[in-house]
Amino acid sequence: MAQINPSILSADFARLAEEAKAVEGADWLHVDVMDNHFVPNLTLGVPIVEALSKATDTPLDCHLMIEDADRWAPQYVEAGAGSVTFHAEAAAAPVRLAREIRAKGARASMALKPATPIEPYEDLLPELDMLLIMTVEPGFGGQAFLDIMLPKIRRTRELISKHGLELWLQVDGGVSATTIERCAEAGADVFVAGSAVYGAEDPAEAVRALRAQADTVTASAPWACGH
Ligand SMILES: O=C(CO)[C@@H](O)[C@H](O)COP(=O)(O)O
Ligand SMILES: [Fe+2]
Question: What is the ipTM of this complex?
Answer without folding.
Answer: 0.99
